[in-house]
Amino acid sequence: MGSTIREVFSIFFERNINKCNLLLDIGKKEHNMISIRIYKQGNDVLIGACDENLIGKKFVDGKFQIDVSKEFYGGRRITAEVLKKYLEDATIANLVGKNTVNCAIKMGLVDSECVMKIKGIPHAQMVRMRV
Question: Which residue among 5, 67, 75, 97 is least enclosed by CB atoms within 10 Å?
Answer without folding.
Answer: 5
